[in-house]
Amino acid sequence: MNPDLNDDVFAALASPVRRALLTLLLDGPRTVNELAAHFDMRRPSVSEHLKVLRDAELVSERRVGRERHYSLEAGPLMELQEWLHPYERFWRERMAGLRDVLEDM
Amino acid sequence: MNPDLNDDVFAALASPVRRALLTLLLDGPRTVNELAAHFDMRRPSVSEHLKVLRDAELVSERRVGRERHYSLEAGPLMELQEWLHPYERFWRERMAGLRDVLEDM
DNA sequence: ATATTAGGTAGGGAGTTTCCTACCTGTCAA
DNA sequence: TTGACAGGTAGGAAACTCCCTACCTAATAT
């Protein structure tokens, strides 16, 4: 049903550091050093986090001279949204329940 | 911004077993034994997965005699959908790009 | 009362994750 | 051409995950 939404994506999103990296990339492509500056962590560790994101195809890299520019790739996140669809009914029901309670007050 | 969407939710979703448990609960509340029957795994392990889901508030439990009925709680998934919002722009852009390529063919 | 059933908890082993330092290659600048 | 800089890779320690078996309590059934 969602053939391309695999474990790797969920595993990649499980780390707060990697989620923060994705958030930083919302503002456009960034080099590894620019990204690393935001973390209390050595650069090689950031490199490894980027590798996990690359393997999950959540980011892409473009080589520019001796720099590497990382960009957000939102495809897997779109599939994640699709994965959520079957659950949507449940939170709508809960919201409806909440609304009813509020109306009774 | 999403104060209630914490690490626990992403970590809970990182396991394929736990995602399968949520999928099973789409059909309504289930006991631990009913859930465990779907996995090639001992029951205590399923219990532990359920504990992780409970801690992330993705499921709730109701005691009925000696059984425990687990139910889906979609609140955190709704927050996950909200977490995705800032990324939506990116996949829309990608889709638009794809459409343009197709139109040129 | 006793046996059985539902299901949680404890402790442990194997595998994985996450960080580190040390080191390497490739590019640019002097 | 030599030095400095960007950033990836290797190897290893500490912590965490995931599964197991053994065991426990509470509730039902006999």
Give an overview of the whole structure.
Chains A, B: Keywords: DNA-binding. Chains A, B: One of its GO terms (molecular function) is DNA-binding transcription factor activity. Chains A, B: This is DNA-binding transcriptional ArsR family regulator. Chains A, B: It comes from Haloactinopolyspora alba. Chains A, B: InterPro entries: ArsR-like_HTH, HTH_ArsR_DNA-bd_dom, WH-like_DNA-bd_sf, WH_DNA-bd_sf. The structure is a homodimer of 105-residue chains. By secondary structure, chain A is α+β, with helices and mostly antiparallel strands. Chain A has one domain: Winged helix-like DNA-binding domain superfamily/Winged helix DNA-binding domain (Arc Repressor Mutant, subunit A, Orthogonal Bundle), CATH 1.10.10. Helices cover 61% and strands 13% of the residues of chain A. Chain A has 5 helices and 3 strands, in the order ααβααββα. Chain A has a 3-stranded antiparallel sheet. In chain A, β2 and β3 form a beta hairpin. The first copy, chain A, is elongated. Chain A starts with 6 loop residues before the first helix and ends with a helix. The mean pLDDT of chain A is 93. At the A-B interface, α1, α2 and α5 of A face α1, α2 and α5 of B. Chain A binds a DNA duplex (30 and 30 nucleotides) through α3 and α4.
